Amino acid sequence: MIKKSIYYTSILLIVAFISSGFKPNNALISDWFRIDGNESLIYNFPSLKNNDYYAINVPFKGKFFIGFKEAVAFKESQGKYNKVNTLGYLGKYQFGMETLKTIGVNDSLYFLSNHKLQEKAFVTLLSKNKYDLKEYIERYNGKIINGVKITESGILAAAHLGGPGSVIKFLETNGQRAKKDSYGTSVRTYLRDFAGYETKGIIPVKNAKVK
Question: How far apart are CA 134 and CA 31, in angstroms?
Fold first, then answer.
């Protein structure tokens, strides 16, 4: 009788042990899978307020202008406002100090610490470059040069990289002269990678200055 009791007890213990392997174990649920009831999920985009996008670490936001800005910023600095590279280029969009002076910014430390100023500087430079390149935008928009479809946004991004002059040389030489920056990134790459974004809202302004 005792032997039978021990036998059945052993069977029950074995079955209980095996069954436990199929029960959900909270310790195996990763923290990333849990959602606190007090946490809110942000899905209310697109938004007309640019500030709504700053906290989201996603470089691609469609082909709207906000997407263009963030895509360029991610390429330049991974979107870091305080970034200073080995050549001394500053901020989220990696401005050279000489370029900043042309749009009315003379204090590099203040520029780095002021996020709104960096955003204004980027748009101001786009306005200036669009004015300088408006004839080329009209002439070459939609054409294929050296395997790249030329668009307004691509031209503006390439001008941000190497200046309007480098874009003009590329276009006028049918893509044979593609200037590269000090890290080896070419104007052609920016023309290709930033093509097709919405930049029609950028107003061309001669000698534009940050207000």
Answer: 52
